[in-house]
Amino acid sequence: MTSDDHPPSNRRKTVLVTGATGYVGSRLIPRILPHYNIRCLVRDPSRLDETLCNQVEVSQGDVMHSPSLQNCLQGVDVAFYLIHGLGYGADFQKKDRIAAENFAAAAKEAGVSRIVYLGGLGDDADSKLSPHLRSRHEVGQIFQASGVPTIELRASVVLGPGSLSYELIRSLTQRLPMMICPKWLSTPTQPIATEDVLAYLHESIELPTEKSEVFEIGSQDVVTYGGLIQMYAKERNLTRILVRVPLLTPYLSSLWLGLVTPTSAEVGRHLIEGLRNPTVVRDDRARTIFSHQPMTTQEAIRQAVQQEA
Ligand SMILES: NC(=O)c1ccc[n+]([C@@H]2O[C@H](COP(=O)([O-])OP(=O)(O)OC[C@H]3O[C@@H](n4cnc5c(N)ncnc54)[C@H](OP(=O)(O)O)[C@@H]3O)[C@@H](O)[C@H]2O)c1
């Protein structure tokens, strides 16, 4: 019996992972590799982890360039969209939109059954929602309107070494014994452990639903960004003093961050702008729909610090 004779339910699904060279994508692949045929969409194959190259199908493509997507998506059952436009420069929102429209159209054309997209938390009704978070939501809306059933997971800071937003918190806390910080110190957030994000993404492949759904995901508890910095300091046995300076604007804040963190001032500014917006789970349906249950923020930070070692 050839593999084509298997009943459809037994056929091994083909899963496309975009962002395969990125923080989330590169960690998702080893987790789902034992269960699915994995195809990676990459702009530059030489950037893909060498050990993965022999175990996955590598397809070169760029979401900004539609024709490069057609072959990548042929025969794909489920496609992960793990790309953001923070590196695109000032007009990142427009590029995020074009990239999502290109990807959605190519997925529809190729008959993909599901898109799984990891976006950002934040309240759509908040008129001061940062351009980065607004853009993340717009990408989700484009997928949901595409006709391809989409699972959109919305998350705040993903806690783990290598994650852009975690590195921001880590380098701030490690380098500065006393920090001059603006109002965003008291903004509530519900970060999430990398392990938990990967579990939700994995489960999304087979989630028994035919329609598009948005799920908000986070750790068990809500903290403030100031609290997060203090939790990280505690795990590293550091004492940190946080001084609030309400007049420090996001722009000045990003220049200052450029000096003390490895994140570029441009990327830092987009992330920092988002720190003024609460990013908490307001609809916790994920807790009942998914079998996975997330850890606490303190546990997530402890795990991240252990991974640093
Ligand atoms: N990290 C977090 O804290 C966090 C929190 C909430 C949500 N998320 C979401 O999670 C997803 C993945 O984020 P991440 O942290 O893994 O990002 P990341 O580490 O910065 O990786 C971004 C990935 O996107 C790829 N990419 C960028 N532009 C592309 C293009 N035009 N065509 C094809 N690939 C392109 C990059 O590939 P190259 O190697 O070619 O540059 C890279 O693999 C994003 O949707 C993000 O919004 C992340």
TrEMBL record:
Single GO molecular function: protein-containing complex binding
SUPFAM superfamilies: NAD(P)-binding Rossmann-fold domains
Domain NmrA-like: 12-155
InterPro entries for this protein: ComplexI_NDUFA9_subunit, NAD(P)-bd_dom_sf, NmrA-like
Pfam name, any one: NmrA
Protein name (record): Oxidoreductase
Protein's organism: Blastopirellula marina
